[in-house]
Amino acid sequence: MTTSRERALGSAAVRIEGPAKVKGTARYAAEHTPPGCLYAWVVTATVARGRIESFDTAAALAEPGAVAVLTHENAPRIGEPEDPTLGALRDDRVPHRGWVVAVAVATSLEAARATADAVRVTYVTEDHDVVLTPDHPGLYTPELANGGHPGTRERGDFDAAYAAAPVTVDVTYSMDPMHNHPMEPHAAVAHWNDGRLTVHDSSQGSSAVRETLAALFAMDPAHVTVISEHVGGGFGSKGTPRPQPVLAAMAALHVGRPVKLVLHRSQLPALVGHRPPTIQRVRLGAGPNGVIDALAHEVITYTSTIKEFVEQAATPARTMYTSPHSRTTHRVTALDVPSPSWMRAPGEASGMYALESAMDELALAAGVDPVELRVRNEPSYEPDSGRPYSSRHLVECLREGAGRFGWRERDPRPGVRRQGRFLLGSGVAAASYPVLISPSTAEARAEADGGFLVRVNATDIGTGARTVLAQIAADALHAPLDRVRITIGDSDLPTAPLAGGSSGTGSWGWSVDKACRALRSRIEAAGGAVPAEGLSASADTAQDVQAASEFARHAYGAHFVEVQVDTDTGEIRVRRMLGVFAAGRILNSLTARSQFIGAMTMGLGMALMEGSTIDPVAGDFAERDLASYHVPAHADVRSVEAYWIEEDDRHLNPMGSKGIGEIGIVGAAAAIGNAVHHATGVRLREAPMRPDRLLPHLG
């Protein structure tokens, strides 16, 4: 038994898998090479819309090492996918540029690429449309946005309240498409053996990949094993099954040998999802004191022609601030573009960029300090549902952040603080992210030698999930952390949900805690001694999670930023970022700080550099590598500080934790934009805020 001072939860435990990663023994999907393994390379469409008229594969198959070229004419038949983005090689349709039209298989990676390059495809092209405009004739109102949120919500009488408001703001913000670009590209190695399929896949949830493959190949899921033991990032792009495991399995079935398929980085923007662009109009009507009476957040975005994906950007405005009269809507149009999908904090990140920027504009219009404005609009219950909050410490985050940042010393006048050719400014924004929990199962086993083994199909995408789950288990077992072993990342383990929506630790941890407590009870019932054959216990949290909660559950945060703007070049540099978060109980201070800082850095990328453009003629994203699609480097992040307020929230899960993977990105871009306005007096309403967009206003 451990004492309270020895408890693992809350400590800065180092990552369990750290030594393996440093030594190179932690194996990622593409590092598995079964005997006789072949290599695959995808051939992607070079037209924006149309149909395939013919293939010429003679030259390709004559390449040294070439084994096969799969097309819709000879590929193994699979079932109708629930997700149409997995339907490549089923027919001759080309829904967008970059769609997979063939897969080349060869004896080496180089040979596979050469074989793919030699495939000739003739197309019948059709007119295409890839440009989102605020008045696009194809715009419609969806019934639901992502996450099951209603496409439209109305409370009170917004039009009348807004017309009567003494202080109003009516602003429109736009955001370019963004791409996930995890360090590890999407990869899969597929191997068929006696009717069984084994796939090593770079995925955020191998259980979901197994179910998808089993359905497509008409198999018993028990005959499919998907392993995602180590994953080099995903940011949502690996959250649901992507094409690589399906194509690798098809190719392996076709050639009768294991096949390895790794997508090239230039192929990711078209094949694994992206954050769609948004055009967001925000209207705020308030009293002279800045208290909001009317709030409207209207979002325009796009989806693809093969799958409806509606970025739920208006949903944060439904829960964030006092708003007795509210209108929140989404409108979407289907274009000939690659299908958008999940990207870190989908909806919240893009929606709060617009909302928190508009709040800054309201503060200026009402003559109220931006921190104080947010405090004055603190609701006593969730506006959209009327439910009480399980815990809400946004005001505390704002107050503590302001104190740590030195906000009181800030001169509120924009454009007055200068150092040589640099203008300096500071800004603030709030953050919110919902608490999401899914059912999970887990098993725990006690060995006679005093060790413990915990099995759960969690996925560690670089967050330190293994370590935190071991800490949860150690506390529940009253055992030292070094006596606990964790096995994750294999669909043959007890079923668990994917790593996404900041829900992983809360979901997996609940089942681990439950299984370990049950095991501890068995050990105590046995007099504290573990028999030679060991003892085991399992847990399923389906009923626990499905019990309706009477509380609204969210994590909150506050961002404070200082920037400098070069008046000669228009370059914006972030000198300092500081965040304070309220996310329940922090289970590991070391990994939590990494998550907060990583997300804040990604918010900096969203604000200043991350964005891509679609060539309207070619229908292709122009930025398809890390030379042209810019992400923050160390030199861009001079000082990032992350702090938190410990919450004692009894309405969450046994650990008392909220998700932390995404709250750090929400609001960060708005805080930077607000700081740019304070520095220059210029309000940029397009993200990313590149020098070419700012410089014309500095003359």
Please describe the structure with a list of short key phrases separated by commas or semicolons:
699 residues, alpha+beta, seven-stranded mixed sheet, six-stranded mixed sheet, 27 strands, 24% helix, disordered N terminus
Could you walk me through the main structural features you see in this protein, from its secondary elements to its overall organization?
Helix content is 24%, strand content 24%. It is built from 16 helices and 27 strands. It is globular and about 75 Å long. The strands form 6 sheets. The protein has a 7-stranded mixed beta sheet with strand order 3-5-1-14-11-12-13, sandwiched between helices. A 6-stranded mixed beta sheet has the order 9-17-16-15-10-27, sandwiched between helices. The model is unreliable at 1-5 (pLDDT under 50). It is of the alpha+beta class.
The helicity comes to 10-25%
* Main structural class: alpha+beta
What is the number of E strands? 27
Mean of residue pLDDT values: 96
Spatially, the strands of the biggest sheet line up as 3-5-1-14-11-12-13
The stretches of 5 or more residues where confidence is low (pLDDT under 50) are 1-5
Overall shape: it is globular
Whole-number radius of gyration?
26 Å
Helices, by number, come to 16
% residues in beta strands: 15-25%
Biggest sheet statistics: 7 strands, mixed
**What is the first-to-last residue Cα distance?**
69 Å
Summarize the model shown.
With 699 residues, the protein is an alpha+beta fold.
Explain the layout of strands and helices:
Blueprint: H1 18-23, E1 38-44, E2 50-56, H2 58-61, E3 66-70, E4 93-94, E5 100-106, H3 109-117, E6 120-125, E7 144-145, E8 149-150, E9 152-155, H4 158-164, E10 167-175, E11 187-193, E12 196-201, H5 206-216, E13 224-227, H6 243-255, E14 259-262, H7 268-271, E15 278-286, E16 292-304, E17 325-335, H8 348-366, H9 370-376, H10 394-405, E18 418-419, E19 422-434, E20 441-446, E21 452-455, H11 465-477, E22 484-487, H12 504-525, E23 535-540, H13 542-546, E24 554-566, E25 572-582, H14 589-608, E26 640-644, H15 668-680, E27 686-687, H16 691-694
Parallel strand pairs: 1-14, 10-27, 12-13, 16-17, 21-22, 25-26
Antiparallel strand pairs: 1-5, 2-4, 2-6, 3-5, 7-8, 9-17, 10-15, 11-12, 11-14, 15-16, 18-19, 19-24, 20-21, 20-23, 24-25
Helix pairs in contact: 8-15, 11-12, 14-15
